[in-house]
Amino acid sequence: MERRNLIRLLVGLGIGLPIAIEAATFFGLFESRVAGDDGGEETPTRTSEPPPPDAVGVGDELLPATAATDTVTGAEIRTEEGERVFLLTVTVENDTEGRYELRLDALTTDAGTTVSGGGRTTQLEPGEATTVIGRWTLPDGERPRAVIVVATVTPAGGGRETVTRRVPIAVE
Amino acid sequence: MTFVEEYPDDAKLIRACFAVSFGALGIGGLFGLIQALHRTGVFQGFVSSSDYYTVLTGHGVLLALVFTTFFIAGFFVWAVTRSLEQSIAGRLAWTWFWLMMVGTVLAAVAILAGFVPGLGISADVLFTFYAPMAAHPIFYIGAALIIVGSWIAGANYFLAYRRWRAAHPDERIPLQTFMVLTTFLMWYLSSAGVAVEVVVFLIPWSLGLIQTVDPLLTRTLFWYFGHPVVYFWLLPAYVVWYTILPKLSGGRLLSDPLARVVFVLFLLLSTPTGFHHQYLDPGIAEGFKFVAMTNTMFLLLPSLMTAFTVVASMEHGARQRGGKGYVSWLRSLPWDEPAFVGIALSGLMFAAGGFSGMVNAGLNLNYLIHNTIWVPGHFHLTVGTAFALTAMAVTYWLFPQISGKRLQLKTAALVQPYLWFFGMTLMSNAMHRAGLAGVPRRTAEPMYPDTPGVVFEGVVGGIGEMRLQIAIGGTLLFVSLCLFLAVIGATWLAPRGGTLDVNGVIPEPLSGAEAAPRVLDNLWLWTAIAVVLVALTYGIPLWAWIVDGVLTPGSPPIPV
Amino acid sequence: MEVHRYERLWIAASLLIVVAWIGTVTWGAVGPPGIQMIDDAGGTVDAGAIADSDYGATDTFREPGVYQVSENHYAVYVVARQFEFEPGSAAAIEVPAGSRVTLYVTSPDVIHGFSVVGTNVNAMVIPGQVTQMTVDFEEPATHGIVCNEYCGAGHHTMAGTIEVVPADEFEGGDAA
Q1: Are the beta carbons of B452 and A46 separated by less than 8 Å?
Q2: H-run or E-run covering A119
Q3: How confident is the model over A89-132, as pLDDT tens digits?
Q4: Residues in A touching B335 (Cβ below 8 Å)
Q5: Most exposed of B413, B549, C25, C43 (fewest Cβ within 10 Å)?
Q6: Are B458 and B470 in contact (CB under 8 A)?
Q7: Per-state percent for chain A, helix, strand, coil, to nearest 5
Q8: CA distance C57 to C59
Q9: What is the domain partition of chain B in residue ranges?
Q10: B48 falls in which pLDDT band (50, 70, 90)?
C-alpha cells in the first residue's frame, strides 16, 4: 500500500476510531444521566435457587445446574507412596444436544487450606460419556470440604456458557 | 559520531538493560493475553482458575517491576552519559546490573514455580504481596535485590554528576541529568518504605525468624512506596516528552526552566500521597486520608503544566514544518514516523488516565470503583501506555544509536503504536465501564452465578459486550507487542555498518537553562522539603503503630 | 524566568481546577451528602481469637450474626475468611427494610474485600482490624456481597448475600 494512504488509514482507524468509541461512551453516559434510567442491560446472574446446603456424595449429581449428567462414583482418600491423596471420580454423560466439558479445579479442606490439582474431561460431543478422576494431595490431618467445579457448555445453537460452583463434598 | 561509537561501554550496558526489560515485557505481555481471555470467559484452556493468580502475579511483577526498572536504568545511563558528555559505565554499573538480574531471576523462579505442583515453592501474592498472604522467601529476597540494585544505579548517576560538577563548578545541571537526579531522589525517598517492609518484616517472617507481622503496617509501608513508584515510571516518560518529543516534532523544547519546576514539584509531592490507596482501610483515621487526598490533587498541577509545554512544543515543531491554522498544524506533524507517533499517542492517552486517576483520588468517589476493574482500566492508560508505549516508541529512535544498526521492519514499527492505542482504547474503555458496574478486579472469574443478588448492571452497554471488548482489546495489544518485539529483534540481529537514518541531535530549548532561577538546582533544599512533607503525612500514623507494637496486631504467614 | 502569557493563564486555570476539585470532594465527604469514610472506629482485634472463634476474648467483636441495637438500628458482625462470608455465604444476612445497619467485619486469615455490588458499600477487611461502617437499607432488595481483594486460589468463589426483607417479615436478630 502506498505510504501516504497507509498513514491516512492508520490515523483514521488508529486515532479516529478510539475518539469515536470514547465519544459514544460519553454520550451514552450523558444520555443515561439525563434520561434518569437505570442504564443498560442487566446481567442474568441472579438465581432463585438457594445456595447449595447439602454435601454431594457417591451416587449424587455433582452439578444439578447443568443439563448434562455428572454423577459422583467415587470420593475417597488414599495413601499413595506416603502421601494422602483425595480422588474424586465423576462419570460424565453428555445427554444434551451441545458439547460439554467438565473441569475439577481447586479443593478446599476443612482447615481452610486450598489445594490445587483436579482433572478435566475432553470436550464431549452429544451422546458421549467419560469418566474423570480429580486428584489432590492433602496436607496432613486435613480432609476435603469443597471442590470448585467448572462446566463449559457449548449449546447447539451457538454461544458458550460457563457454570462455576463450589460443591461441598461428602467423603466416603 | 553516534552514541555507540562515542560511548561503546555505556551502549553495551544500555543494550543489556533493554534486553532484560524487553524479555520481561514479552513474557508479562503473554500473561496479560492469557488473563484477558480467561477472565472474560473467551478461552480458559491455558491455566486453571487457581493458576490464574500465578499468571497475574507474573504479569504484575514482570511488567511493573522488571520491565520498568531495567528500562529506566538503561535509559537513564543514556541520558546522563549524553548530557554530561562522559562515560559512566564501569564496575559499579555492572554491579547494579547483575544485582538486579539476580533479584529478577529469584523472584521469577518463585513465581513460575507456582505452576509446578509438588515443588512447594510459590508466590501467588500478586504485585502488591499483601501480608498475611505469604510467598516463598526467595520471592521477597529477589524483590529486595532489584530495589537495592536500583539504588546503586542511582549512586552511579550521582557519582558521575559529582565528577562532572568538579570539572564544571558554575554551570547549570544539564537538563536531562537534572531530571534523572530528581527522579532518583524521589525514588530513594519512596522506595525506603517497601525496602523496610520487605527486609525488616517480610523476609524474616517468611523465613520463620519472626512469628507475626502487622498486616496494616506492612500494607501501609507498601503504599508509601506504591504511589510514588508510578512517578518513578512517569518521570522517565516525561524526560522523553520534554527532551526528545519536541525534536521529533521538528522543533525545540519551549522552556527548560519550567521543566525543572515540574520535576521539583514531583520530588516534593509524589510520596506524601500513599493513603489514597487506603481510603477503604480500617485502622486509619479520616484526617490522614483527607491530607493524602489534597496532596494528590495538587499533583495534577505538574502534569497539567507538562501538557501545556508538550503540546506547545509540538505545535512549535509543526509550524517549523510548515503547519498553519489553529488546529490544522496537527497534520504537519510526522505521523509517518514510529517514534513520534508512539510518544504523541501515549501523551494523549495519559491525559485520559490522569483524569480517571483524579476520580480514584476523590475520597468518597473512590468507594464506587475501589478494587473494581476500573482501576486496571486506569493504570493501563498510565503505566500501560504513557510509560510502556513511550518506552517502545523511543526505542525505535534510540536503539539504532546504541547499537549501530538500522531499524528493520519499519512498516511494522509504524503500525505498532497505532494498534496499541486502538487496542488499549477498547480494553480500557470497557474496563472503566465494567468497573462502574461493580465488576471486581484481580479475579479469575468475575461472574458469581450461584450467589443471589450479585448483579452487575452496566450504565452504558451490557456486561457481555464489555467482556468481549476487553478480550478483543487485550488481543490487539498482544499483537502490537509482538510487532514491537519483532522490530527490535530483527534490528538487533541485523548487520552493523552503513549510515543510520536516525538523527540523534537534540537542539537547545527556546528558553534555556540560564533563564532558570538557580534555586531550582538546589537539590538539597528540595529533598529536605520532600522529607518534611513525608514526615507530616506519615509521621503520626506510623509512629502510633510502631508504639503499639511493631508486630501487633499480628498475623502469621498464610502461604498461597 | 520568562513565562509566556498563555502558560501563566493555563497554570492559573489548573490551580483553579485543582482547588475546585478538592472542594467538591470535601463537600461530598464533610458536607450535606456526608458519605462517612471508613476509619479506625472499629478498633483492633486479635486475629487468632477470631480464627479460634473465641469471641468472648475480645470486646471489639462478637459472634457473627445480626443483633438489634435499638428500634431501627441493627449491628451485623461478619467474619470474612478464605473463601466465604459468615454470615452471608452459607446463609444470607437478613435485615429489615427501613433500618440503619452498622456492619463490623474482620478476618482471621488474610486481607479481604467487602463490597455490596451496585452500591458504595465497599471496604477492606484486614486481620487485626475491625472494619466498621453504617448503611441505611431503605427498600426491600437482594444485595450481593463480593470479596474484591485477592485472597487466594478460591478468591473468585467468595461471595454472599444481604437480604433486605419487608419490615413485617423480619424475624429479628439476637438481642444486643
Answers
A1: yes
A2: strand A119-120
A3: 999 999 888 889 888 888 887 776 778 788 888 888 898 899 99
A4: 7, 10-11
A5: B549
A6: no
A7: 20, 40, 40
A8: 7
A9: 12-448+465-559
A10: very high
Measured in angstroms, the CA of A79 and the nearest CA of chain C are apart by: 25
The residue with cell 443478588 is: B453
Per residue in A41-74, pLDDT (tens digit) is 322 222 222 233 467 888 888 888 788 889 998 8
Annotation says B227 is catalytic: yes
Q: How far is B461 from chain A (nearest CA, A)?
A: 5
Closest CA to C100 of C132, C74, C81: C74
ipTM: 0.94
Which helix (H) or strand (E) is B99 found in, with range? helix B91-112
Please tell me the distance in Å from C69's CA to the nearest CA on chain B: 22
- pLDDT tens-digit readout, B369-420: 999 999 999 999 999 999 999 999 999 999 999 999 999 999 999 999 999 9
B378 a catalytic residue: yes
Rounded distance, CA A119 to CA A149, Å?
A: 10
Indicate the residue of B301, B309, B560 with minimum beta-carbon distance to C152: B560
Note the CATH architecture for domain B12-448+465-559. Up-down Bundle (1.20)
B vs C, Cβ pairs < 8 A, gives 229
* φ, ψ (nearest 5 deg) of residue C81: -140, 170
B453–C11 CB contact, under 8 Å: no
- Give catalytic status of residue B379 as yes or no: yes
Q: Which residue would you say has higher pLDDT here, B119 or B241? A: B241
Fold of domain C47-175: Immunoglobulin-like (2.60.40)
